[in-house]
Specification:
It is built from 22 helices and 18 strands. By secondary structure, it is an alpha/beta fold.
Length: about 575
């Protein structure tokens, strides 16, 4: 039976009127006025609450214009009612899930779901995109389209599951705002875009107050991952997970037979984990870029030589998607037979997710220094014209490669070890989640990242093992396996950093990672002088080593007064 609309008032339960009920009253209640200019049938149905078969005790009148089984318009004759109209073919709800947003990621995720036996309703604000998608990429599939949000909601099975793949920020906000009035308690909204976790925290609370379950899910793997198996990181309303688990774990990537998708935590945990994933991605990419820079600039290696090195690295501990594609990029030639890489302008773009990681780290007081360095390296790369001008101002006083590097093969191995050690530092932190008491399972998250995502690598399996041994591990640098790796790599790591500086090859990520390691493994730092300075000019006090928990202030000037207000924070 096809429902066309539901009426709501301040009185008890809403009544449902359907076309079949209206047809039963057609002969008795049609009036001359109930015809449209184009001659469509107009059906007038009377009903009282819960008594569709009792026109005599009617509480309101519904007028339904029907044409070929399609509700064209609905109007009511009694004022004071809010009528929600569902247009479209009046068939039963058929779709398991709806996806809003038909850019490439959205289309590929829909096709992936279809491949796994799920019926998907596709919708886009520009309806012509839906028509094009159904006529081309989705031709011959079970995928259905929607001409409006109302049409989309009507086609969904309960609880309704709606997944958004639209631009973060305003577009997500507007879509949710338009969608909420059409949903009911228990329905589910999934934001699968690159939203900030703070927005997801807020939306989780706002929608929970309306009885709607919000899920913020990170999706990694790019266009190919969306089509054939991404890594997925859902978090939010745990009540939604039983209704999403089968779909998500069916379409996601698999690693050793295990799905690269599991529940992350409540509120904005899913997007927080995706943000950290993207920050690590920035760090990994910058480290690889610096390894390339050393081989290219210091060793003068050709693209094919460097590709051979990356291919070899990909057979060992550095086995990863990013190492794999770097070798392919180095080998790639254009139609002229020339390598493409040297022709690419050396300015790297960014969407902001790496920056979010660095900013969040500052907010939490977490020293995620390598990721921040990777973000700033991209910012510096964008200053192309200034860099070119600065390079012409003076001759830099740098050493010659042949004076420092006597064994090319040995130095390449030094670079490999430095890259591996620096990579450990990039993954070492993770304390930000403790602020929200999300109790993230870092081992499980590492497993989710082993397939389908940009940072997938063999290395992640070792992280999983470390957290399996100690779920409360504060830092990877405290795990014996990673300590052994650092121990073996340390001399090479330092050699690479020192050589790069003497040659004038910029390696901010390598050096930042080494500096973090030195700082983290130092029992005594230089921060005592910093705190003494703060106490000198701001009377901020300092803690005594001999008496932990005891804070004192020293009158450093000897004149009996403070230099500045103690409200100053430096």
């Amino acid at each position: 039976m096809g429902t066309v609309c539901s009426l709501h008032s301040a009185e008890p339960a809403p009544v449902i009127i359907d076309v079949e009920a209206a047809i039963q009253y057609e002969q008795t209640h049609l009036a001359p006025m109930d015809k449209t200019p184009d001659g469509n049938s107009v059906l007038k149905a009377y009903s009282s609450y819960g008594k569709q078969d009792n026109p005599i005790s009617a509480r309101f009148t519904l007028v339904i214009c029907v044409r070929a089984g399609r509700a064209m318009c609905v109007r009511y004759k009694r004022p004071g009612f809010n009528v929600s109209i569902f247009t479209g073919d009046m068939s039963e709800a058929v779709a398991d899930i709806a996806v809003i947003g038909l850019a490439v990621m959205g289309q590929n995720l829909i096709l992936n779901m279809n491949d796994h036996g799920f019926t998907v309703c596709a919708f886009n604000r520009t309806v012509s995109k839906v028509e094009d998608f159904l006529a081309n990429e989705a031709k011959g599939t079970k995928i259905v389209g929607a001409t409006s949000l109302e049409d989309m909601v009507r086609k969904l099975k309960r609880p309704r599951r709606v997944l958004l793949l639209v631009k973060a920020g305003g577009p997500v906000e507007e879509t949710i705002k338009s969608l909420v009035p059409l949903l009911e308690a228990g329905d589910i909204i999934v934001d699968a875009g690159n939203s900030e976790y703070t927005d997801s925290n807020r939306r989780y609370k706002e929608l929970a107050a309306k009885g709607i379950h919000f899920v913020g899910s990170g999706v990694s793997g790019g266009e190919e991952g969306a089509r054939y198996g991404p890594s997925m990181m859902p978090g939010g309303a745990i009540e939604a997970w039983p209704h999403l688990k089968d779909i998500f774990q069916s379409i996601c990537a698999k690693s050793d037979g295990e799905p690269c998708c599991d529940w992350v935590g409540n509120a904005g945990a899913g997007h927080f984990v995706k943000m950290v994933h993207n920050g690590i991605e920035y760090g990994d990419m910058q480290l690889i870029a610096e390894a390339y820079s050393l081989m290219n600039g210091a060793l003068g290696m050709s693209e094919d030589e460097m590709a051979d090195v990356f291919d070899e690295w990909n057979k060992g501990d550095l086995d990863s998607y990013l190492i794999e594609i770097t070798a392919k990029i180095l080998r790639y030639r254009d139609e002229k037979g020339e390598h493409v890489l040297p022709k690419i302008r050396d300015t790297a773009g960014q969407k902001g997710t790496g920056k979010w990681t660095a900013i969040s780290a500052l907010d939490f007081g977490m020293p995620v220094t390598l990721i921040a360095s990777a973000v700033f390296a991209r910012c510096l790369s964008a200053l192309k014209d200034e860099r070119v001008a600065a390079s012409k101002i003076r001759q830099r006083k740098v050493a010659k490669p042949e004076d420092l590097i006597k064994d090319k093969k040995a130095f390449i191995e030094d670079i490999r070890k430095a890259l591996y050690a620096s990579k450990i530092v990039s993954y070492a932190g993770g304390g930000g989640s403790r602020k929200f008491d999300w109790k993230l399972n870092f081992g499980a998250i590492a497993l989710m990242w082993r397939g389908g995502c940009i940072i997938r690598s063999r290395f992640l399996g070792k992280i999983k093992e470390a957290f399996d041994k100690n779920a409360d591990l504060a830092n990877l640098l405290m795990d014996q396996f990673f300590l052994n790796v650092i121990d073996e790599a340390e001399e090479s790591w330092r050699r690479v950093g020192a050589t790069a500086m003497q040659l004038g090859v910029s390696t901010p990520a390598f050096c930042t990672a080494l500096n973090f390691f030195d700082g983290y493994s130092s029992a005594m730092s230089s921060a005592n002088i910093l705190q003494a300075q703060r106490d000198f000019f701001g009377a901020h006090t300092y803690e005594l080593l001999e008496f932990p928990g005891t804070f004192v202030h020293t009158n450093w000037t000897g004149t009996g007064g403070r230099v500045t207000s103690n409200a100053y924070q430096a």
